[in-house]
Fold this sequence. Notes:
Two copies of one chain form a homodimer.
Chain A: E1 33-37, E2 42-44, E3 52-58, E4 61-66, E5 72-78, E6 83-84, E7 95-98, E8 102-108, H1 117-139, H2 142-156, E9 162-164, H3 169-176, H4 180-192, E10 196-200, E11 203-206, H5 209-215
Antiparallel strand pairs in A: 1-8, 2-7, 3-6, 3-8, 4-5, 4-7, 9-11, 10-11
Helix pairs in contact in A: 2-5, 3-4
Chain A binds a DNA duplex (30 and 30 nucleotides) through helix 4.
Amino acid sequence: MLAYTTIQMSPRLGSDGIDQPVPLPLGQARPQQILFFAPGSEIYAQGQKARNIYQVEFGAVRVYRLLADGRRQISAFYLSGEVFGFEADANHHFFAEAITGTSLRLFPRSKFGDISQELFSLTLRCLTRAQEHLLVLGRQTAAERVAAFLLDLAERQGGLEQVELPMSRMDIGDYLGLTIETVSRVFSKLKDKEIIALPTLRSAEIKKWNALQAMSE
Amino acid sequence: MLAYTTIQMSPRLGSDGIDQPVPLPLGQARPQQILFFAPGSEIYAQGQKARNIYQVEFGAVRVYRLLADGRRQISAFYLSGEVFGFEADANHHFFAEAITGTSLRLFPRSKFGDISQELFSLTLRCLTRAQEHLLVLGRQTAAERVAAFLLDLAERQGGLEQVELPMSRMDIGDYLGLTIETVSRVFSKLKDKEIIALPTLRSAEIKKWNALQAMSE
DNA sequence: CGGTAAATTGAATCGTGTCAATGTAAGTGG
DNA sequence: CCACTTACATTGACACGATTCAATTTACCG
């Protein structure tokens, strides 16, 4: 986990699963406001003016694009502490929605006079993540994708056995380029092999880390 | 196409297909050196120290990752004028190779004291491209992927009918998450429908733009 | 030209998608 | 507190698109 002196991307979950206060990113920049978004509500839409960078205080966010016929690709999920909303020009190229009830810190783009090293670093990290995800979508099987997804989520939640899944099976499918049925089948197979347990629909327990890691590539 | 006062990403091909001089990016930064790479030669490897940002003077570059069993995902191709080599930390996370004989301008990272607006802008554009490609890999069919690929290449080469394909079918497959056979079959089908012509293995002519555009989504 | 690597084409297989039915958890009102 | 509703997830049977494996064919270069 990162030290306090650098940028905090990982969510900070207490042992009871309740979010801990999240450090501010972006140097001395102060958020203009904190906003709450109800489950399923829109944070921004494709084509809208991109006014802010966002940091998740608690909750979870999906960022996605749509094809004309309704096919959806989720490009990333964002959890507590993580930052999103970078855009190459004045407008958003994606949609962003709250998955669960979500509180966001807004950092107005207009306040970024000089690009800080921290903002740049966050952008590069976002780029690296997107490029890594290309490998998953382009070259991995359904089982490998799900395994990689669970390990990624686990790591971002502090490496605990218990992994929260704020998103639906449909969201997971649209992130991994799979249908809900395939996601569900892989989950069931992992459960049968006792690699994971599924205590509720929205959580998973990783029982055999090395088996998952071996699967994920 | 972009004005001269802003960053030049598009290749500048003359009507004879010969590269024109490419403007310098990155503000007043001057390249330390210009290097030539033979076809197939390595520009950098995963894990290596990331010392430079690169601009293609002429030629073409593939940037990719490998899975343990040899599966490869090309995350992007770079053509004349385009800039690559951004990394989130001190090391490269990908491999880069010259496809054809390629000349590169090297901009040492050590010389970037403050992050320039232009460097940031290039990074954001790279991010947006990666995110767009996620949609292709996650949610499009083989025919849609190839159509989108041809249109993208055509646009980056100035929107001419004649499109150069510096990369092999294998490269195209590894970029689109397909096998060479599938790529080849789609090419043949497009040729049969007279949507494209294939005068040589390494070039394509787009005959029916709207048909391709309709296919690509 | 002839040799070689790359690309194309064909046939069979496999993985994931599609469609349909069933199961399950959470929420509502009686 | 329980029936009822509704949305979501799981499971099964089948279809289809892409891969695999194999056989040609084509383009390129000495």
